[in-house]
Specification:
alpha/beta; nine-stranded mixed beta sheet; six-stranded mixed beta sheet; 20 helices; 33% helix
Length: 639
Amino acid sequence: MKNLIFTLILSIIFLNNSFSFAASEPDFPGKVSDFHGYVRHDFQFQSHNCIIVEPKTPADGNPWIWRARFFGHEPQTDKCLLARGFHVAFIDCPDMFGSPNAVKLWDDYYNYLTTKFKFNKKPALEGMSRGGLFVFNWAKANPDKVSCIYADAPVCDISSWPSSQRKVLWQAALKQYNLTDQTVATAKINPIDNLELLAKAKVPILIVAGDADQVVPIEANSYIFRDRYQKLDGPIKMIVKPGVDHHPHSLKDPTEIVKFIVQHTNDLDRMYYIRDQLQNSRLKFTREKKGTVAFLGGSITYNPGWRPMVCEYLQKEFPDTEFTFIAAGIPSLGSIPGTFRMDRDILSKGKVDLLFQEAAVNDKVNNQNPDQVTFAMSGIVEHARSVNPDMDIVFMYFVDPEKMKFYNSGQSSPIIDIHEKVARKYHVSGINLALEVTDRINTGEFTWKDDFKNLHPSPFGQKIYFNSIKRFLELCWANPIKSSDRIIAHQTPHTPNSYNQARLADVHENWQSDGFKVVENFKPTDAATRDGFVNIPVLEATETGAELKYQFKGNAIGLFVICGPDAGKAQYSIDGKQYPIIDFFTPWSRGLHLPRAYVLADELSDGSHELILKMIEDQNPRSKGHACRIAHFLVNSPR
């Protein structure tokens, strides 16, 4: 019996030691010392001095910031990130100037840290002064391995620094790049050169710099980099310090820097484009105890699932608030019909505080014109905030197989890129659920076929959407409300030709016709219909040769047509100018009277115009007839 007890005790000790060993932290090499209360390790890698500083508790995903040059100088950002669970890493290569040799060394060090110590595959990069040469050049060579870049008074062109005036450093830099005084002028080796792949990968960049910098002039470095990156539609933000020279680096209060890095480093948080903390709606819900939240979109917004879950979450988060929820999703409709029905379906129902907008799936499925999508998305924001400048808006990008193919091939989704360009201009936050779902499927967390199932998600997929939106809202509202916080009207720029005065015009007015007539209560029996487009008046023609003349004012004109099994083709002109023939029969028309918004022309003058529409004999081979049923005229002009 005693032997049995002794054996059990030994077994327990062995198992405890085994578990302790299995759960132990990485065994970092080198000399151990203190770095502002954190454990610092100094060691050699390929004969270069290296440093790793450990957080007390590593964050999920093992995030890290990779510092280039001047380790320990102005450490406030690094200290804040250590407190948030980031590791800090450094490799010293002072005389390599971000050259190809330096990029190769960084490649090896990256592989060492991500394989041996399981650091996150996408570090944040931090480059002060000449460190800009390292972070930008390595990022350009490895755009898929970077979460974001924080550059502080960065060198972006060696002709600016060290420049030929610093002869010893200049010759050292030329030697690293294998250049001469003659060949350097045409060599594209600087951070400001060849930014296309970095911009295509949408790597977020934050530059902090003083506008009185005499060492690394902002005009010859940061401004040139910013302008070129912006021209390529790369996401970049600058914090300019008025009257500040090259020193001091960083910010005394690094909150903005830390927030930028945290938002773009976490694997989930990189799906969130937080440009606005939604503070106006939060203050309204909290202080006035009233709130109106609207949901504008297609079938993914119309169907039950994530939307009622979000409503329930908001009611629980603000239990004393009286909410009004506006469900304005209509299947098959994207941004263009969305902007024209804003008045009817949302703005006419009262002052909206928070608007969730989704259209990226249907804009692609309906093959919408990219310029018209830009005008529509811009119009939604401008129109909404002309009615309520305090309104918070969130763009949402839901998943479909085509978007997954783009992400899995290393590309971005073209339609999301269009929406995001608008979002950045108007400082609107976004949630890229397409990217999140793709990444989580790729890591084996769940599958499309068995779990998510369709672009109209299963209940499991709807919960994925809700949890992500909830997390986004929690990130936006993470900081406590201060007594000094106030609702501040959004600054709303203008996009030329945006549909910012879009409206649905009555089919009873301003037309003359031979062959068209108003059917007061459209209710077909040969195919399905969509809510909002049945039991309504329509202007209908069913025979070829039917002609319609419509008088309107404004700079854009279109039609909301119900495209059923007998949809025909039409030719049209505006003010005598002939436009291409329209085929109203859609891929879904055989079994559905599908509402489809057609913008016939935009960029017109703001005066009076005449539209002439005529049904023609040519017919889609799948159609049963020559019908045109107009539910609304689409006009971009004041009432």
